[in-house]
Write a structure and sequence with these properties.
heterodimer; A: 166 residues; Jelly Rolls; 12 strands; B: alpha+beta; 2 domains
Chain lengths: 166, 201
């Protein structure tokens, strides 16, 4: 019994320290989830719960009839509608050191974006990229639709054997 | 026989071209919660298009063609295309500012009331995460002020924990004297800079 309690305590403290560590490098959190949603991180698919931390290079993915909403540490709000893919490419938020930048890549689907503090302090540091354009943001709310194309989906690309064009 | 073989060879190529051609984008400027409208600039190799009016949209056919002149799009269509994404927008984070007495981690009397508002918000905002950032005025060294800022942030964190907030959702940092609310010369005492910012998101 005692041993079991000890193991539980150790596991719990590991969990807490992992959570504390995660909170430090994360760029934001998942806030709303509906339907089939996953996050591709280091080639592993995670099924996020509300509150889940998000990190640089995460790819947010939604299935049919699904959606996800996230909040970044600078208060930027991003939500995706069904069949969407979004890459978190860059996020720097240290106003004290004047390091400010947010870049996301919308590969397909629908996105609604409400800019946060980075756009207020440094508007030129905010960009949403799509396969055919780049959108500069000067403090505002807007929506983007990117019509689907599996060639632009790194997940599905990985699944198919590459012909080796390097 | 030959034509079938040729068709089989050509078919994937056609599919590829079709799927490449279907990368059409639409960018729509929306009013924000405060009713304000900002500006977005849509750029690619073909040029740049600025959208600065609510519910105006520019479409982009390819990376080489200039984004179209902004045109009005009605709310019904916006809803039809973006309804699910709009419904998934999280609540806007809420900011609180708590002030401290000089060279101390004691809250001012007024700020104790603000603290109650902060606690209520944490309990109603679900799932809540709280970022607490300590700041100081410009009296003293950077190092001492970093530590004072951290002490202030930790003081707020401890009050929250004491009121039943889960420590896992709280993140504490200090900007010391680097991020004053009111710009002053070095070594100027300024009460409005002795503060903790708490963001509930």
């Amino acid at each position: 019994m005692k041993l079991k309690a000890l193991i539980l305590t150790v596991l719990f403290s590991l969990f807490i320290s992992a959570a504390a560590f995660a909170a430090d490098d994360s760029v934001g959190n998942v806030k709303t989830i509906s339907g089939k949603v996953s996050i591709l991180r280091n080639n592993m698919a995670i099924n996020p719960a509300a509150g889940e931390a998000i990190f640089l290079n995460d790819i947010l993915r939604t299935g049919a009839e699904s959606s996800i909403g996230v909040v970044f540490k600078d208060d930027t709000l991003v939500s995706l509608g069904p069949d969407s893919r979004l890459v978190i490419s860059k996020f720097l938020f240290s106003p004290a050191e004047n390091k400010l930048s947010i870049v996301v890549k919308m590969l397909k689907g629908t996105l609604v974006y409400l800019s946060g503090i980075i756009a207020k302090l440094s508007p030129e540091a905010v960009t949403v990229e799509t396969p055919v354009a780049s959108i500069g943001v000067r403090g505002t709310k807007f929506a983007i639709k990117v019509e689907g194309n599996d060639q632009s989906d790194p997940v599905e690309q990985k699944a198919a054997p590459s012909s080796g064009t390097k | 026989m030959i034509s079938l073989k040729r068709l089989l060879l050509v078919a994937p190529l056609v599919l590829l071209l079709v799927s490449c051609a279907s990368q059409r984008n639409l960018v729509v400027l929306l009013p924000d919660q405060d009713g304000k409208t900002g500006i977005v600039a849509v750029s690619n190799k073909g040029g740049t298009q600025v959208i600065n009016k609510t519910n105006q949209a520019s479409s982009i056919d390819s990376a080489e063609t200039k984004p179209s002149e902004p045109k009005s799009i009605d709310e019904k269509n916006i809803r039809k295309i973006f309804g699910r994404a709009l419904d998934a927008q999280p609540r806007k984070p809420i900011h609180f500012t708590l002030y401290f007495e000089f060279n101390s981690d004691n809250l001012t009397a007024e700020s104790k009331i603000v603290l109650n508002g902060l606690l209520t918000e944490i309990k109603t905002f679900k799932p809540a995460a709280v970022a607490i950032i300590g700041h100081t005025d410009l009296v003293g060294t950077s190092k001492a002020n970093y530590e004072l800022g951290l002490e202030r942030a930790v003081a707020v964190k401890n009050i929250l924990i004491g009121s039943g907030v889960n420590p896992v959702i709280i993140e504490v940092t200090s900007h010391g004297k680097d991020n004053p609310l009111i710009r002053t010369a070095d070594n100027v005492a300024e009460p409005r800079n002795r503060r903790v910012e708490a963001v509930v998101r």
